[in-house]
Specification:
The chain is α/β, with parallel strands linked by helices and 328 residues long. The chain is 33% helix and 24% strand. It has a domain of 75 residues. A hairpin with a 2-residue loop joins strand 4 and strand 5.
Amino acid sequence: MILSVRDFAIGFQREGQNLVAVDGISFDVAEGETFVIIGESGSGKSLTGMSIAGLQPPTAFVSGSIRFKDREMLKRPDAELRKLRGPEIGLIYQDPLSSLNPVWPVGDQIAETLTAHGLASRAEARKRAVEMLERVRIPDPRRVASAYPHEISGGMRQRAMIAMALAAGPSLLIADEPTTALDVTIKAQMLELLAELKRELSLTIILITHDMGVVAEVADRILVLYAGRIAEVGPADAIMLQPSHPYTAALMTSAMISQTPAKQDLNAIVGGAPGLGAFPAGCRFHPRCPRARDDCKAIEPPRRKFGSVELACHHPIEAAMPLETARS
């Protein structure tokens, strides 16, 4: 395993209270796979992804363990974390326009990834930046390298972010909602590009998204988060074709826009996800769950084995096989 997360929790203090945003989650990521974390806004996806790279907010409190290549990432000194980000862990952020420096040319920003880690001289880094822009299929890469972020399109900015993330040769790429602001055609091109780069560079990818279309295209395994807890985790085919957790099934159903007749209301999950500090007792999904019973309201379900997946649910869909307790 390239990454092992155990009992990871992260939260914040508000008015003297400790409010936990991600609550004791555990999972592994195998080398070479595309591991997708999905869930509604506020589920803890981005907090988890950024914490893997040691980029949790400075005001946050954390506990548990995040081990990357057998090195503990939590509470590691900032100086050591900076050495890992770039050469070991690459990051693609959700909004490239706000993530890129508006007063630096794109090529200089990619080159800085190399010079900051002592991987190339300034001239070599500049040449490498142009090569990386070409590698991510940007036409006229020399022109784009000299352009400022606002002078290129959103699709090109996202490609430039990918070039920057991969310039120093990381083995793990964390992509936080990389296709959110892109139209359908550009999104498809971006997913194709990521798949191609994964093969060429032997990358492991952690993709954070709420877009089920993206999940269906690229995932090897899927982790479903709800209100800071794991709802379901397992192989992509099993989860996409026959979700066992009612929340996962609801996500799949609500995403089927193209299969909904024109005059029929779109499927939606009733209610909204609970806010920080407002998590209900028992199963956190029970106020919105059509399968909820009395035990769901009082007892938090342990994470258990169900076929090829693990899930936290007292009454999973198609519960025809015995449940075995798995790690929490």
